[in-house]
Amino acid sequence: MRSLTLRKITVKLVLFFTALIMVSSLVSFIASMIFAYNVENEIRLNQQAIARTILELEARTDLSLEEILQIASTFMYDAEPLRDADSLAQLPKPPDQLPPGESIFMGERPFHGTTTLLKIGDTVVQIRLRPQNTTYGIAASRSWRSALIYVAIGAVLASVLARRIVRPIIQLNAATKEIARGHFDIQLATESHDELGQLTQNFNRMARELKHMEYLHKDFIASVSHEFKTPIASIQGFARLLQKGNLSDSERDEYTRIIVEESARLSHLSSNIIRLSKLENQEIVSRKDLFYLDEQIRKCILLLEPEWEKKAIEWDIQLDRARYPGDEELLQQVWINLIGNAIKFSRQGGLISVALEHIAGGIRVTLEDQGAGMDQQTIPRIFEKFYQGDAAHSSEGSGLGLPLVKRILDLHNGTIQVTSQPGEGTCFTVDLPIPTEND
Ligand code: ADP
């Protein structure tokens, strides 16, 4: 709980400023106490000295009281008889009971400021600061230097704090500009866990993601160029050979066949790339046809007959009747790709099992072959674009089949899982949820 509240920058700021205010008010309070007390004490001593002078002059000279008071008065203090009736009424004792020659120190009104009273004969003399001088005026004039120092210390502390708070914001600002310029390598150091610390960590994560995406993008372009380069080079090579002439009929047929095959591969590749990029930009299934999935799968097996006949594949087909609302054309692509792969990676005379069953909330299609299988390194990568496992390098294909399957199933909120053992076979399990009214 404690660390949680301290993580909030607002809490930190409030605590800091409260501490700052407390420290500075304490310091200035103590200082003003010391100064005011000192000044008052000093005034009292000065007034007592004047009182002593007056008593001395009174005892040793013949000067009149008026003259004595004139001599005793200074630039700071005024000594004069107290005649004001109000002030006389405020005395601690009636004037006639005041002991002669004794000085009384008065701190309160109406004896404004610090006043010393002295009884000479019947007259009460007051020694006080001249009106232009006050205790506070004197104290203030002495403490302005200290006040300046407090302000300076406060300013330094505040600027250190402001710098500490603002530094990560300045860093983030500069880093954002770098990102905008396309430099994704940037990472900011942070040890703090408050909101700014979290913002910095999220910024770092964003930069890493952007860098990863940039890498994927570059990688995609590199793969596309590579996939196109090979068939184009082969078409070019065989076309040159054809140009040369003096070829036998069988050579010409062979070269022409290769050119036709490679062009078909190129056209297949480009239509797959276009299809995938369209699907990647699509967020929902736009068409929802209600059709029989089992029929569709059967039709796909028939469509691929030329492929499996060559390999004398055997089939074990167990399809429950299942109506499904989805994009019929896209889902056909799923079965063609999966069944096509099963045939491609099967041995001569191998068995392929296809099953469709109803499960809770949806439909499950299982496709199992006894073909080449995949090793543990290949399995996690088969849904990456352009990825082809070792066993596939020699055979035709572009590594876009399974990414297409995955994307189409994603759009239908479906899932695909694979289990495989090298040399033993592969099993793909596709789960398609039946969409509810709200979907
Ligand atoms: P390709 O065009 O190469 O078949 P895919 O995306 O369809 O591309 O498949 C990617 C890789 O997954 C293949 O190169 C292969 O290594 C592996 N693969 C897919 N299906 C199977 C299967 N039934 N048996 C073994 N390996 C498979």
Automatic annotation (TrEMBL):
<dbReference type="Pfam" id="PF00672">
    <property type="entry name" value="HAMP"/>
</dbReference>
<feature type="domain" description="Histidine kinase">
    <location>
        <begin position="223"/>
        <end position="436"/>
    </location>
</feature>
<feature type="transmembrane region" description="Helical">
    <location>
        <begin position="12"/>
        <end position="37"/>
    </location>
</feature>
<dbReference type="InterPro" id="IPR003661">
    <property type="entry name" value="HisK_dim/P_dom"/>
</dbReference>
<keyword id="KW-1133">Transmembrane helix</keyword>
<dbReference type="InterPro" id="IPR036097">
    <property type="entry name" value="HisK_dim/P_sf"/>
</dbReference>
<dbReference type="Pfam" id="PF00512">
    <property type="entry name" value="HisKA"/>
</dbReference>
<dbReference type="InterPro" id="IPR005467">
    <property type="entry name" value="His_kinase_dom"/>
</dbReference>
<dbReference type="InterPro" id="IPR004358">
    <property type="entry name" value="Sig_transdc_His_kin-like_C"/>
</dbReference>
<keyword id="KW-0597">Phosphoprotein</keyword>
<keyword id="KW-0808">Transferase</keyword>
<dbReference type="InterPro" id="IPR036890">
    <property type="entry name" value="HATPase_C_sf"/>
</dbReference>
<feature type="domain" description="HAMP">
    <location>
        <begin position="163"/>
        <end position="215"/>
    </location>
</feature>
<keyword id="KW-0418">Kinase</keyword>
<dbReference type="GO" id="GO:0000155">
    <property type="term" value="F:phosphorelay sensor kinase activity"/>
</dbReference>
<keyword id="KW-0843">Virulence</keyword>
<protein>
    <recommendedName>
        <fullName>Heme sensor protein HssS</fullName>
        <ecNumber>2.7.13.3</ecNumber>
    </recommendedName>
</protein>
<dbReference type="InterPro" id="IPR003660">
    <property type="entry name" value="HAMP_dom"/>
</dbReference>
<dbReference type="GO" id="GO:0005886">
    <property type="term" value="C:plasma membrane"/>
</dbReference>
<dbReference type="InterPro" id="IPR003594">
    <property type="entry name" value="HATPase_dom"/>
</dbReference>
<keyword id="KW-0902">Two-component regulatory system</keyword>
<comment type="function">
    <text>Member of the two-component regulatory system HssS/HssR involved in intracellular heme homeostasis and tempering of staphylococcal virulence. HssS functions as a heme sensor histidine kinase which is autophosphorylated at a histidine residue and transfers its phosphate group to an aspartate residue of HssR. HssR/HssS activates the expression of hrtAB, an efflux pump, in response to extracellular heme, hemin, hemoglobin or blood.</text>
</comment>
<keyword id="KW-0812">Transmembrane</keyword>
<dbReference type="InterPro" id="IPR050398">
    <property type="entry name" value="HssS/ArlS-like"/>
</dbReference>
<dbReference type="Pfam" id="PF02518">
    <property type="entry name" value="HATPase_c"/>
</dbReference>
<keyword id="KW-0472">Membrane</keyword>
